[in-house]
Amino acid sequence: MSSDPPAAASSSRVEAPPGIGLVVATAVSYGVNPLILPPLVYGLVLSHVGAPAGDVATGVGLAAVFLGLIPLAHVAWMRARGEVGSLEIRDRDKRIEPFLVVLGAGLTALLLVSGLDFYGRRFVVALLGCHLLNTSLLLGITRRWKISVHCSSVAGALGTLAFVHVHVPGSVLGGAVIGPAVLCTGLVLVPLLLWARVRSRAHTLGQAVAGTALGLVAPYLELLAVLPGLGP
Description:
By secondary structure, this protein is mainly alpha-helical. The protein has helices at 4-11, 20-31, 37-48, 53-80, 96-114, 121-142, 149-167, 178-199, 205-226. It has one domain.
């Protein structure tokens, strides 16, 4: 006779129905990963405001190391130790430790950037501040509810680039080709990822929608609040 606890545990996670949809959803989830977005966003923003190539490389490198590689290395370490089943960390309780690592790495990056002098530094400081604030919000929510970090991150990238396109004069995102192309790509990826997270049963529809809404709204409003202080 089986006991109640295993049955309750098994019912807490619903397996995704197999099929081509699951294959596509899994590929999208791994391909559109939150950890690869910061270098792309920082590079586009710094290029947009006219930063020299060396300064763009500085921003991209900082984002890649502190917002991408360090968190990824920690999750890979957890995976190697058998603490998590995949790099997605589907167990909500196991997400707290990586969140703390992300906050620590982001704070280190902010302190480092504050001591450097390069074109667009204020934008990078603002982006890092948004990153820390929104990561803290996600951490607080995750302690109670499994909001979608994937959806929040991708939507956050779109919200950030949309803000720059609308409010920050520049030559890249404000152009007639690149700006609309980037934003249209984001408008495709955001709902595609939302579908993928729900289809793979990584999240419920409500969790994915909540993450998307937070990502679209929060960075836009935060950057709007500090707009007067932004500059080279």
